Amino acid sequence: MNKKLILSTAIAAASLMGTAQAEVKIGFLGGFTGPIESLTPPIFAGAKLAVAQINVEGGLFSSGEILEMPSADTTCVDASAASNGADRLINSDGVIAIVGALCSGSTIAASNNVAVPAGVPMISPASTSPAVTGLDDNDLVFRTAPSDAYQGEMLAKLLEAKGIDDIAITYVNNDYGKGLADALVGAFNGNVAANEAHEDGKADYRAELGSLASTGAETLVVLAYADGSGQTILRQAYESGDFGRFVGGDGMVGQNLIDAVGADVLDGMIATKPGIPEIAGQSVYADAMTSLGQDPSAVFAGQAYDAAFILALAIESKGSTDTEGLSEAIRMVSTAPGEVILPGEWAKAKAALAAGKDINYEGASGNHEFDANGDVPGMIVEMVVENGAFVQKSILK
C-alpha cells in the first residue's frame, strides 16, 4: 500500500509539475484525440509509471535530478499535428528524447520533419508499419513493438489454422493500414477476394462495404482503429448482414470498440496484437501497473513503459543531457551481456552504471535487442472477443 501511494503521488506530481521545475525531460507523443484516443491513456500510463519509479528511486545522475514527461497530441492522422507536437516538445519544452509517436504515420512525420534534424532519438511503443524500418533516420528511431511485417504473417497463419481461406480486407489508407494489409496479403495462402483502402473519419462506409460484400467473402478483415473508421465499419457491416465473421489487427483491440459496437455483435471476433512474453520483467511490471489500478495487458502499455525506461537508462549511462551519442547508449543499456536490470530496478541500474558495469535491461514487454534498423522481434498473440471483452488465447508462432 505504501509503494502504491508513493508511486501514485509521484505520477500526480509529474503531471502537475511546471516545465521550468524539471531538470531532465523525455517527451511523450501520442494520439490523445482521434481514432486511437481510447487506446492512448493506458499507453501513456505505462510510460508515466516508469518515470514515477525513476523519480522515487533517486532520479537521474548523482544529483538526483527529476525526470519529467511533457506530452503532445498527434491526433494519429494529421502529419502536421505530429510534426508540430514534436517541434513543441523539442524546441519549447526542451525534451532530449521522445517516447512515441504511436501511429506509424505520426512517427514518420515527426521523425523526418523534426526529431532527426534535431538529433533527438525517438522510441515508439506502437508504430508497427514496415515503413518505419526503412527510415533514413541516422539511427535515431527505435521501437519496442514488432513490425507489422511479422504481425501480418502471424495473422495469415492464424486465419489458415482456423480454416478461413477466403477473406475480404479493408484497411485505413495510411502507413499502418497499408503496411499491415500488404503483409497479410503476402503471407496468406488462401483467397484474398478484395483488398481495398478506405479513408478514416467518414460517417458512412456502406459503398465500400457493398464492394467488399460483392466478392462473396464471408470473413471481413478490418485493419483500422478502434475509435475511428474501424468502429463505424464494423457497425455498418453488421447492419448489412453480409459478413459472418470479423477479424482485426492491433489497432482494433480496445474495450471501447466492444462497448460502442456491442458485445453480442462482436462475440467471436478474432484479432492479433503484440504480446508480452512470460519473462521476469513482465510480472514485475504487471504488479506495479495493477497496484495503480491500470490494466497491464493494455495494448502497447508495456512497450511504452520499456521505451521510457530505456531512454532514461541511456541518459543515465551517458551522465549528461547531451543528445550526441544517445542512440549508441540506447543500444548499450538494452543489449546483452551485462548486469540484468528488470522493470523498477532503477536504483540497481544507477549503482551498476556508477561502478562502471555494463547493464542489460530486460523489460516489461520483451528483451529489447535492437537490430540495425532499431527494430525488435517481439511476439504476436491471438485475441478473441468473449463475454464482452478481448481475451488472449494463444501465442502465435
TrEMBL record:
Record Pfam families: ANF_receptor
Every Receptor ligand binding region domain range: 47-378
Keywords on record: Signal
Top-rank taxon, per record: Bacteria
Keyword hit for Signal: yes
Signal peptide, first to last residue: 1-22
InterPro entries, per the entry: ANF_lig-bd_rcpt (IPR001828), BCAA_transport (IPR051010)
Keyword Signal on entry: yes
UniProt name for this protein: ABC transporter substrate-binding protein
Organism: Reinekea marina
